[in-house]
Amino acid sequence: MSLLSVRDLKVHFPIKRGVLFDRTIGHVYAVDGVSLDVERGGTYGLVGESGCGKSTLGRAVLRLVDVTSGSVEFDGKDLATLKGEPLRKERSRLQMVFQDPMSSLDPRQNVESILSEGLAAHGMIGDRKARRAHIQQTLDAVGLPRGALSRYPHEFSGGQRQRIGIARALVLKPDVIIADEPVSALDVSVQAQVINLLEELQNDLGLTYLVIAHDLAVVRHISDTIGVMYLGGIVEEAPSDVLYVSPRHPYTKALMSAVPVPDPEVEDSRERVLLKGDLPSPANPPTGCRFHTRCPWRQETRCDTERPELTLVGDGHKVACHWAAEIEAGEIQPKSDAVVGATTAEVA
Amino acid sequence: MALLEVEDLAVTFQRKGTAPVHAVDGVSFTVAEGQVVGLVGESGCGKSVTSLALMGLLAKRGVKVGGKALFDGNDLLTMPGSTLRDMRGSEMAMIFQDPLSSLNPVIPIGLQVTEVLKRHRGMKGEPAEKEAADLLDRVGIPDPRRRLKEYPHQLSGGMRQRALIAMAVACRPRLLIADEPTTALDVTIQAQILELLKELVAQQGTALIMITHDLGVVAGLCDEINVMYAGRVVEGAARRPLFASPTHPYSVGLLGSIPRLDAPRGEKLKPIPGSVRDNIAWADGCAFAPRCAHRTDECLDGPPALVQTYTGHAYRCVNPVTGDEVEAVTAAATLPAPSIVDATTDSDGEA
Amino acid sequence: MSAKTDRIDRLAELTARKDEGGHGLWYEAFRRLRRNPLAMTGAVIILLFVLIAILAPWLAPHDPAAQTWLGEIRGAEGFIPGPRSGNWLGVDGLGRDELSRLIIGSRQSLLVGVVATLLGFTAGAILGGLSGAFLGMFGKAGRWVDSILMRFNDMALAVPSLLLAISVATILGQGLVTVMIAVGVTQIPVFARLLRGSMLAQSHSDYVLASTALGVRKRRIVLNHILPNSMSPVLVQATLSLATAIIEAAGLSFLGLGGANAANPEWGVMLADSQQYLATNLRLAVYPAVAIIITALGFTLLGEAMREALDPKLRK
Ligand SMILES: Nc1ncnc2c1ncn2[C@@H]1O[C@H](COP(=O)(O)OP(=O)(O)OP(=O)(O)O)[C@@H](O)[C@H]1O
Ligand SMILES: Nc1ncnc2c1ncn2[C@@H]1O[C@H](COP(=O)(O)OP(=O)(O)OP(=O)(O)O)[C@@H](O)[C@H]1O
Ligand SMILES: [Mg+2]
Ligand SMILES: [Mg+2]
């Protein structure tokens, strides 16, 4: 039984207009029927393009946004229906690491106050001395100097700030950490430090991660299982290595081929699946398969009328595409102009 | 002769009451027609300031610009403002990271494109409009006639960047400077834009300076790559040699820091310790020294000189990483079948 | 060996941070203010103004109400003596020492400005703070309360401030208190809007989300995070408001609502009194006008500099 299991989760934000009284004129279907399981001690990576609903999903799991429908089962409790004090108490067990390390820290709090706030809120470690020792220990764990305690967020570099954010989450000894783009605001050289830190902490503390990122390479690096999101839904889910070796959904193929690899040999020899057009608006998603407007493998039937279910196609490998089997077998070919061959231009 | 020869470009920001900021501190490189030259480096290393200096777009007050930038033999840095203004847009053009803020929000896209055509090519009325539609079509904007009448906010990020590229190439500039043109975009859109830029260079022989922090982007696009650190180029080489045998410990460190899509699972990244805040001034030694695992005593003997190798590699380091040490990095995997990549950088450095 | 340790020491020395840190944002903002010449100019003007106001009775060379009998010195009909020994800025139409009246008048301006702004600030902050707090703490019911409070506020905001001030004055009659209340009341909706808007913006920020995720109680989040972080635009506004309040107070006095008397001169009244001599003795209008402009400028300079110093975007 997985530690965290999300079932058919929907988060629809009402779009309001009106001068005196707000009227709902539609919805943003930010998350529209997502199910996923995160195993204890494992890492689930959620990847997708801007606006596909990744952050909203993460926030919905933590109940930081209102859930429209569906359930979020955590350790036997449904978080989606929890309210008030019971919800607040439960929060210590699931923590979040944010994208922007500056804006997610209160600029007027020093590090000690940032780290003790959660402890105070849950009445953990009442003894002053013991609390301080615990905070020091957490600082050590994330690799911050002890002198950091009396300093303010703006006095740190980006990477150090993200460490503070991680320490804040860790200090409550949570079971699950949801990291929303934990490294995308950081410099390349610092990104690697934070990724390594997250991995070390997981090994040492047995943490369970839900990592959200738009960078497939980062997600693949740290996740056991990857879910690929497109416009509010998961289109493919597979163990990290399987997804990389045999992506089955057309969108995953395109995404994978678009990620640049820092190696000219690879770059020159790979094929690209280029997508036409842009991400449709989640306020007005396409009918049927949400990806059919941009899909190079699109068929005349089913694609624009029937929404494909996420179905099991292999060991832990799920795909939401009507034609996944035919595409895999090579019976359906992509539109010819969608696949760009290897560049031949070569100046050495 | 190369189209653009930048020699010892230096930009210092000096405001009263504050210490001078040496944003760019001796940058040299050349760009030939039809060539793509990459400037890579982390945030704050001076990439944007370099490009702004070349375009003459830096403020006049409180800024000191030194060195030379010969465009076709004429120095851009000493050129009179009016000549430079005429050249901008016609001879050289720039694409910025944030397409929304570089487009005028209250003027339709079409008018903004025809404005460029009018100013530099003297086109007016229907021909200008037709040319504008052609341009939009060429950069892959569907239904260009309709788009001409739309305002920037009505276009998506990718479309805006395309519109901006259309404006930049409207007069077939000989030099195009792209400052992180895809950083704000999704990868699938980024792939479209990069493909477009490649086409432009191939078809029109435009010289392109590509500024980015993404080594993956330059690996697929650039002919020559300059790695910048703290305002200086610390390593410059052609694309393949740079990735095959990075010489400066910083380049090696960067390559070891990036999670590669094709790397096997469970492999540790090799981050560079510290952050740019740990840098020392170039005058005191190598700015990278405090973070460098390959540091030796000589690193603090003043700024390291630029070393040119017979292979065309150039680096600024007194203790470069040798071939054997990075051999592992070069054992590249090929897509799609993943193979083992051991991104060992160096292990013998005294930390 | 020793050469080597020297090098290591040298590296340590080169990378050592000069600043030990541990400074809060207010401190940093203050440091930025100190370095801004415009802020310092504003501060010096304000300091001078406050000092003059406090020390006015000792600084004023004459009794501001005492009249020189003009007939004695008056040569031609309608002649008002300008600067001369004993009266550095000359005398006004009634033969009172202009400089003394300006100096004593600063007290009224300061008093009205400070009290009115304090009134507007306090009431506005309470109203806006309540609105923002209800919004942040009580879900749907909170939104209702906020809605109602803010609709009233919008109506108040829509009334031209001078009109509001005149209405208050007609109810309470003329007098210093009237001016204070009138000017203060017009500021209330401005402060309320500002604080509430600022709180709303803060409540959507990531660190509030982070605190919620930590399980911090809503009340604590509002009081400890949202409110303190929302104060800077309000403080800036308060400084700028002092300038407007002084101008508005002068305006009301000019219109005769201030009820200043001969012993308690006021810059607005002085301006009003000078009207009848505009053609012949422009300087009588210029002196109080310049005094008003300079003090207002002082507060505006400081306010704008504060806005810059507290701007999170400019923070390093
Ligand atoms: N509070 C909100 N009210 C209304 N719409 C919202 C809200 N939060 C998010 N949305 C919308 O929901 C959609 C999904 O947003 P979300 O932030 O989850 O995307 P994301 O996948 O995290 O994207 P990014 O990579 O840009 O962070 C977007 O269209 C966004 O505009
Ligand atoms: N107008 C300015 N005044 C003072 N310093 C400046 C100014 N513009 C840039 N700098 C400084 O110059 C350095 C280089 O800035 P630049 O914008 O070129 O960096 P960059 O390499 O483009 O980084 P990024 O990847 O973040 O865009 C930075 O340290 C920056 O703080
Ligand atoms: Mg997001
Ligand atoms: Mg830049």
UniProtKB/TrEMBL annotation, chain A:
Keywords assigned: ATP-binding, Nucleotide-binding, Transport
Q: Where is the ABC transporter domain?
A: 6-256
What Gene Ontology terms for biological process does this UniProt record contain? Answer: peptide transport; transmembrane transport
Per the UniProt record, one Pfam family is ABC_tran
InterPro entries reported in the protein's UniProt record: AAA+_ATPase, ABC_transp_ATP-bind, ABC_transporter-like_ATP-bd, ABC_transporter-like_CS, Oligopep_ABC_C, P-loop_NTPase
Q: Which Gene3D superfamilies match?
A: P-loop containing nucleotide triphosphate hydrolases (3.40.50.300)
Which SMART domains would you find in this protein's record? Answer: AAA
Annotated GO molecular function terms are: ATP binding; ATP hydrolysis activity
| Family named by the database record | Belongs to the ABC transporter superfamily.
Name this polypeptide is given: Peptide/nickel transport system ATP-binding protein
Q: Which organism is the protein's source?
A: Phytomonospora endophytica
Lineage, opening ranks: Bacteria, Bacillati, Actinomycetota, Actinomycetes, Micromonosporales
From TrEMBL, chain B:
Q: What one GO molecular function would you report for this record?
A: ATP hydrolysis activity
* An annotated GO cellular component: plasma membrane
Q: Which Pfam families does its entry note?
A: ABC_tran (PF00005), oligo_HPY (PF08352)
Name the GO terms of the biological process aspect.
peptide transport
UniProt keywords, alphabetically? ATP-binding, Cell membrane, Membrane, Nucleotide-binding, Transport
Keyword ATP-binding (UniProt): yes
InterPro entries per record? AAA+_ATPase, ABC_Ni/Peptide_Import, ABC_transporter-like_ATP-bd, ABC_transporter-like_CS, Oligopep_ABC_C, P-loop_NTPase
Q: Which PANTHER family match?
A: DIPEPTIDE TRANSPORT ATP-BINDING PROTEIN DPPD, OLIGOPEPTIDE TRANSPORT ATP-BINDING PROTEIN APPD
The protein in question is named Peptide/nickel transport system ATP-binding protein
The species this protein was found in: Phytomonospora endophytica
From TrEMBL, chain C:
* The keyword Transport is annotated on this UniProt entry: yes
Q: Which Gene3D superfamilies match?
A: MetI-like
A GO CC term attached to the entry: plasma membrane
Q: Name one GO biological process term.
A: transmembrane transport
Concerning CDD domains, the annotation shows:
TM_PBP2
Task: Indicate what this protein is called per its UniProt record.
Answer: Peptide/nickel transport system permease protein
Give compartment(s): Cell membrane
- The membrane spanning regions, by residue number, are 38-60, 110-136, 240-264, 284-306
Q: One Pfam family from the UniProt entry? A: BPD_transp_1
Signal peptide annotation: none
Query: What is the similarity comment for this entry?
Result: Belongs to the binding-protein-dependent transport system permease family.
SUPFAM superfamilies in alphabetical order? MetI-like (SSF161098)
All copies of domain ABC transmembrane type-1, residue ranges: 106-303
InterPro entries assigned:
BP-dependent_transpt_permease, MetI-like, MetI-like_sf, OppC_N
Bilayer disposition of the protein? Multi-pass membrane protein
Could you tell me the superkingdom of the organism this chain comes from?
Bacteria
> What is the protein's species of origin?
Phytomonospora endophytica
Give the principal location in a single coarse category: membrane
Which keywords label this protein? Cell membrane, Membrane, Transmembrane, Transmembrane helix, Transport
